[in-house]
Write a structure and sequence with these properties.
The protein is an alpha/beta fold. 33% of the residues lie in helices and 23% in strands. Strands 2-3-1-4-10-11 form a 6-stranded mixed beta sheet, with helices on both faces. Strands 13-12-16-14-15 form a 5-stranded mixed beta sheet. The protein has a 3-stranded mixed beta sheet with strand order 6-8-7, covered by helices on one side.
């Protein structure tokens, strides 16, 4: 990070730490947090411009990509090798994996790319231990799997903090805030819901760091951090889950307490033993479910349904998405489609491009010749 910017951030962080938190200071603290967000965004922009040629040269493949994130020697490589046919080097010492190792998990007809990323360490968001490259890779996955072991539970909070510092928001959605810039008139604030954590003065204090004249409409009950996120351009919202490895080394009561505590933090969690394979069948199903993948069985005109190799789409996808994935000509030549299964209103329903598909639908696409 640029030294000048780093010094500015440190100075502001110290000021926040030393400022007594109360109603009288909340506007000031909110403004300081917004300043930090702007400085971090500027630092990241400068680094990305000057870091050409760096990063992991991993091509996204398959129907979805999952990133394995954790401290060195937590068992990521062992898990990757068990779930896929990848060959990720395993050793009982730190930093065995020095690059991103891809593998393909084949499950329910889907090809799911899993990346074994190098070990994350404290300070990763500031570039330590290839941290910037690792966090950049995480920004491009469809699911982040945070892996810890039962003996080092403190690692989870460090990982979450590093991801947060890099602008990654786990299991969240982009705040429902509409900002319309205008030429004059200052900042006006309106909300369509009752706000628990914000008031008009605090909203204006934070917003003034990003805009001079704007109409702001807040359409959900958000915090000051979420308001700052709504202005920041480097935020990425990533589905995530926690894997607790080495369950074979802990008793049942201990594992139950570990899993229960993690669930309280808005993260799904699953306990496994990568070495023995315990819990891996359930993990495969959980990965498929969290990726929100659906299977569409294609039935060509006049032929039998292909139940062996389904077309893999995502929840909410439509017939148009199926056409696009099958072949670029399918949409251009599309006449109509017929669907049977969960999304059909009757046995065989004639539908158009906008019809929303569901898991295990049977789909026939009819095109112009």
């Amino acid at each position: 990070m640029d030294a000048t910017i780093e010094e500015q951030i440190k100075k502001i962080e110290d000021e926040i730490f030393n400022t007594q938190k109360n109603k009288a200071t909340e506007h000031h603290i909110g403004k300081l947090k917004a300043k930090i967000a702007k400085l971090k965004e500027l630092a990241e922009k400068r680094k990305s411009q000057g870091a050409k040629g760096k990063g992991f040269s991993i091509k996204k493949e398959g129907d979805a990509t999952v990133g394995l994130i954790g401290f060195p020697s937590v068992g990521k490589s062992t898990l990757l090798n068990k779930l896929t046919r990848a060959s990720s080097k395993i050793g009982a010492y730190d930093f065995t994996t020095l690059d991103a190792i891809p593998g393909i998990l084949k499950y329910k007809g889907a090809d799911i790319q899993i990346l074994d990323l190098p070990g994350l360490i404290k300070g990763a968001s500031e570039g330590k231990g290839r941290g910037r490259e690792i966090l950049s890779a995480v920004r491009n996955v469809d699911l982040a799997m945070l892996m810890i072991d039962a003996q080092h539970l403190d690692h989870l909070e460090i990982i979450k903090r590093e991801l947060f510092g890099a602008g990654l928001r786990l299991n969240q959605k982009s705040p429902d805030v509409v900002v319309t810039k205008k030429g004059q008139g200052g900042i006006t604030v309106n909300s369509t819901v009752k706000l628990t954590y914000l008031n008009e003065g605090l909203i204006k204090s934070i917003s003034s760091e990003f805009v001079i004249n704007a109409d702001i409409i807040i359409r959900e009950d958000i915090t000051e951090d979420q308001l700052i996120d709504s202005f920041s351009k480097n935020r990425m919202y990533v589905p995530a889950m926690v894997i607790v490895n080495k369950k074979d080394l802990a008793d049942q009561i201990t594992m139950y307490n570990i899993v229960s505590n993690i669930k309280k933090s808005n993260l799904d969690v699953h306990a496994i033993s990568a070495t023995t394979g315990d819990g891996l069948d359930e993990l495969r199903e959980k990965i498929f479910t969290m990726l929100k993948l659906i299977r569409i069985y294609m039935k060509p005109v006049g032929k039998k349904t292909d139940y062996d190799e389904p077309l893999i789409l995502k929840e909410g996808d439509k017939v148009e998405d199926a056409c696009r994935k099958l072949h670029r000509d399918f949409k251009r030549k599309f006449r109509y489609a017929s669907v049977s299964g969960p999304s059909a209103k009757h046995d065989i329903q004639k539908v158009g491009l906008e019809h929303k598909l569901q898991d295990e639908d049977v789909l026939t696409i009819v095109t112009w010749k």
